[in-house]
Each structure stands twice: as C-alpha cells, then as structure tokens.
C-alpha cells in the first residue's frame, strides 16, 4: 500500500512539472541557499538574498570573461604581432568547449532531476525568436562551411587553426540552437548558482564571438587587396601592400570553387553576428528565470492568437511597400554584383527609404496618440521578457542611430549640396526620427493591457465561423456556389471589421503596416544590400578599417532591431 502511495505521488509530481497552471506544492521547491545569508530569519528571505547573490557572482564571472576576451581582441587589433588572430581563436575555442560541456550537462543532468522544471515562462522564447535562432544558426553553419573550404584551398598560407576553429563553431552552434529551442522557457529550480554561471559563461562567449565578428576584417582585407592589385595592374603600377595586412601572398586562385567560398562567406557574414545577438537575448531571459516561481503571482493568462481581422489598408499599403522594396533590392543587387555600382542605383535605393521612412514615422506618431487617448490601463506586473524586449529595442536602435550620426558628420564635412550626399543626409536624419517614434509606439503598446473582447456575441461569432467553413465540406461545387461562398466570407470579414471601434481599427492597421515595412527593411540589408559601405563616401572620409568596424557594429544591430520590432509590433497588433 505504501509503495502505491509513493508511485502515485511521483506520477503526480511528474504531471505537475509539465503543467504551468497547477501551482507546485511547497515540498517540491528547492529554496536557494548561500553561505553569506545562512543566518536569515525566514526561508523566503534567505532564498531572496541567495538569489541576488547568485546573480551577482554569475554576472561578475561574465564580466571578467568579457574583459579578458576584449583585452585579447584589442591586443590583436593594435599589436597584431604580439597577439595573433589564431591565439584569439584558441581562447574562444576553449570558452566554447566549456559552454558545450555545461549545455550537455544541463540537457542530460540538471533538467532531468526531480522537480527541476516545475513551470515554464509562457512569455519567454516565442516562436519567432526560436525560429530566428534556427534560421541564423543554419546560415552561420553554412558560413563556417564556406570558411573551412576557403581556408582548405589556401592551406599553404593559412593556419591549421582556421580549419579547427570553424569546426568547433559548427558543433557549438548546433548544440546551442537545440538547447535554446527546447529549454528557452525553463524556470529551473535546482542547481541555481551553477546554472546561472553556465548561462552567463555562454552569454559572454556569444558576446565575444560577436565582437570578433565586428572587428575581424581579414578576409575582407584580402578581397580589397586583390581588387586593389587588379586595378593597379590595369593602371601599370606596382601593387601596394597594406601596412597591417600582407595579404597579396595569400590570394584566392582563379577557380570557381574558391570564388564561391569567398563570395558565400562575405554574403553570409552578417548572419553570424545576428545569431550571437539573438542567442544572448534568449540566454539572458533564461538567466533571469532561474529560480523563478510563477505560482507566487498567479495571473489569469489567456493566450491571444494572431487573427487577420479588422485590417484592410495596413496590409494593402504594406504589401505595396514590400513589392516596391523587392524590386529596388533586386535592381540594386544586379547593378552591384555585375559591375561597379553607379550613382543612379544609390539614388534609387535612398529615394525608396526617403519615401518609406516618413510614412512609418507618421504611423507610429498617430499610434502613440491613440494609445494616449484610449482608456486601457497600463500592465504593471513584473515580466522579465517584456523588460528585456524594451532594453533590446532601445539598445539595438543605437546601431542605426550611431551609423546615421557618423554619416551626417562625414557628409556635412564634405559636400552636402551634392544630390547623392543630400539624399544620404536626408536618409540618415529620417532614420533617426523613425527609430525613435517606432520605439515609443511599441514600448507604449507592450505596456498596455489587452482589450476585452466584448464587441461580438458568441452567437454571432459562431455564425461567422460556420459561414467561413461551410464551403470546406463540399468538394464538388459549381462556380456559382463558389462565388456565393466567397461573398459570404467577404461579408463576414467586413462585418467583423465594422464591429471594431475606430481606435482598435487604427491600431491594427498601423501595426500591420509597420510589420510589413520592418520585414522588407530587414530583408534588404540581411541579404546583401549594404550601400553604407558600398557607396564609398563615408569609407573615404573615415578610412577603410574605421568604417568597417562602424558598419559591422551598426549593421547587425540594425538588422536585429528590424527583426525584434516585428515581434513587438505583432504583440501590439494582438493586444489591440
């Protein structure tokens, strides 16, 4: 009889560990302990203090690792003789191996302990974030495959580390992507401090990989030196060697496979930086959720679903912007890859932005005014995911804003009255204003409570569903019946649109329009449209190496900002 009780209790515990809504029994909770706070009067107070101490020490661990890595990378940049790129790769490989060991231990050990994951954070790791991890992870793996192939062809002048490092990177990306896909929502309740330290070590490693990607221009300099050598040969001059990059002795042979590896590496280069940034954001939410007990603050959470209702003009205008953007992007890519891009291509590209950015800014300002007019209360409940979303929006916007200010200074100091320069200047100013207005609109919308869906009775909603699905049961219908079904669906959609208040309609139209605009503004720089580096104006003003670092710092942040804005705008659309 006692054995049956024990087995029933274990099965009950197992069921509770998989459920979010059922609050756990206090006997399951592993309260945190720390030797500094062993004399606290209550268990809850000791647990709270131990949690703060664990976050502090794990944060100090990450800070020291980041400072050590920054010292190595800075030494490589300013004194490339004493500290080489291979030595930086060895340091990062050691960190990645340590992270791999901890992730494998978490997957096979920590997460499988009894009562390890009593509940999961429903806000953490949404599908679009985890999908981004997989997408950017796949492109990063392909990038490292190209890197291995490129280094293998030039093995006579490349170090063996340039083959080993990408191989470890592929294993690290695969393991980390699997870990984040399956465990990004975990609120781990065991081995708190060890888990925090492992997460912070992984965050620090991703930050250092991002920093190295921003500053490492080895292959880019090799391509620049080859182009310079070809130009000088046509001009009848002796080839010029870059003072810090003697790369003419390690040139890509005139073979198709080498050119493919080289071009593929350059094209996929921004995806690796995006992958590191996305992983850092997901890992940070996991770090905040270590030891978190959601049942302490029970919230009646109703999961909202995305429904394409109450929008007409937003999708229409957004689709027009996307189609025009794709045409501009294709024309730009054809001109840039076929030959040296002329001024007309850059004028067309920046003109598209100058038309689109003011429309996005006006929409965001109108949406912010509507938020101020409506009577929805602010959602003041603690939400680590939402707090991180706000920080990421503000931080990622600094990339485009910073690049815009650098461009403004360079253009004003040279020739602002030139047509192309004036277009780039207008583009930079409008981009700053658009980022600020969109951030205000998204952050204000994320802190609003959901609308109460009281505008449509259940009978009407059921009748509309029956009308929408009536035609699916009949496989063979005439053209007349098909037209009647389309008319019914259209009438039901118009009815649902008219039932919404004007504020909700306006917010949904604006949010959907901004979603589509941010998607096309994410696609264009992600897949190779980089006029800020290819127009040559800022590059000639700041110098190649300086502008390379500025672009590699700002461009991935800008791409990450567009992608993150899509998620925030979809949340605003759903809550409206």
TrEMBL record:
Compartments, as annotated in UniProt: Cell membrane
Gene Ontology terms, MF aspect: proton channel activity
Keywords: Cell membrane, Hydrogen ion transport, Ion channel, Ion transport, Membrane, Transmembrane, Transmembrane helix, Transport
Source taxon at top rank: Eukaryota
GO cellular component terms listed in the entry, alphabetical order: plasma membrane
Entry's transmembrane regions: 56-82, 88-108, 128-151, 163-181, 193-213, 266-287, 308-332, 352-370, 390-412, 424-443, 510-529, 541-561
Keyword Membrane: yes
Signal peptide: none
Key word Lyase present: no
Membrane-protein topology: Multi-pass membrane protein
Protein family according to the UniProt entry: Belongs to the otopetrin family.
PANTHER family: PROTON CHANNEL OTOP, PROTON CHANNEL OTOP3
Name the record gives this protein: OTOP3 protein
Organism: Chloroceryle aenea
Gene: Otop3
């Amino acid at each position: 009889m006692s054995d049956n009780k024990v087995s029933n209790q274990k099965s009950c515990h197992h069921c509770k560990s998989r459920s979010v809504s059922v609050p756990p029994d206090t006997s399951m909770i592993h309260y945190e302990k720390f030797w500094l706070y062993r004399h606290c009067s209550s268990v809850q107070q000791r647990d709270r203090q131990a949690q703060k101490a664990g976050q502090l020490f794990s944060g100090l661990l990450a800070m020291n690792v980041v400072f050590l890595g920054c010292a190595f990378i800075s030494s490589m940049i300013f004194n490339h003789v004493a500290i080489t790129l291979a030595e930086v790769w060895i340091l990062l490989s050691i960190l990645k191996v340590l992270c791999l060991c901890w992730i494998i231990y978490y997957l096979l050990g920590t997460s499988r302990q009894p009562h390890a994951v009593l509940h999961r954070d429903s806000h953490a790791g949404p599908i679009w974030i985890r999908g981004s991890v997989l997408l950017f992870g796949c492109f990063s793996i392909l990038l490292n495959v190209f890197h291995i192939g490129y280094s293998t062809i030039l093995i006579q002048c490349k170090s063996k580390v340039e083959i080993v490092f990408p191989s470890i990177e592929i294993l690290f990306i695969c393991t980390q992507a699997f870990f984040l896909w399956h465990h990004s929502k975990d609120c781990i309740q065991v081995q708190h401090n060890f888990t925090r330290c492992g997460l912070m070590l992984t965050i620090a490693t991703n930050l250092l990989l991002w920093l190295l990607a921003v500053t490492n221009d080895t292959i880019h300099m090799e391509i620049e030196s080859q182009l310079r050598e070809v130009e000088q040969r046509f001009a009848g001059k002796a080839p010029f060697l870059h003072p810090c990059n003697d790369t003419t002795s390690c040139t890509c042979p005139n073979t198709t496979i080498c050119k493919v590896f080289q071009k593929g590496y350059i094209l996929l280069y921004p995806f690796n930086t995006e992958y590191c940034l996305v992983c850092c954001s997901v890992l940070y939410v996991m770090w905040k959720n270590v030891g978190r007990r959601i049942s302490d603050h029970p919230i009646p959470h109703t999961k909202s679903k995305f429904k394409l209702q109450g929008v007409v003009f937003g999708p229409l205008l957004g689709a027009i912007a996307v189609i025009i953007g794709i045409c501009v992007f294709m024309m730009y890519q054809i001109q840039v890859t076929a030959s040296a891009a002329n001024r007309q291509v850059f004028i067309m590209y920046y003109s598209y932005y100058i038309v689109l950015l003011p429309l996005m800014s006006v929409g965001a300002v109108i949406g912010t005014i509507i938020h101020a007019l409506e009577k929805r209360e602010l959602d003041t409940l603690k939400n680590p995911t939402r707090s991180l979303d706000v920080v990421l929006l503000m931080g990622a916007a600094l990339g485009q804003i910073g690049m815009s200010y650098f461009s403004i200074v360079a253009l004003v100091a040279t020739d602002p009255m030139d047509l192309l320069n004036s277009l780039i200047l207008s583009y930079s100013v409008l981009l700053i204003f658009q980022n600020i207005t969109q951030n205000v609109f998204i952050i204000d919308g994320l802190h609003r409570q959901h609308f109460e869906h009281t505008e449509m009775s259940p009978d009407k909603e059921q009748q509309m569903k029956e009308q929408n699905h009536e035609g699916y049961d009949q496989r063979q219908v005439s053209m007349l019946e098909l037209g009647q079904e389309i008319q019914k669906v259209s009438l039901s959609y118009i009815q649902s649109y008219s039932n919404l208040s004007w504020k909700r309609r306006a917010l949904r139209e604006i949010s959907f329009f901004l979603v589509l605009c941010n998607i096309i503004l994410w696609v264009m720089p992600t897949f190779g449209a980089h006029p800020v580096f290819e127009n040559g104006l800022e590059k000639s003003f700041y110098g190649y190496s300086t502008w390379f670092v500025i672009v590699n710092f700002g461009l991935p942040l800008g791409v990450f900002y567009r992608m993150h804005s899509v998620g925030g705008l979809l949340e605003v659309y759903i809550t409206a």
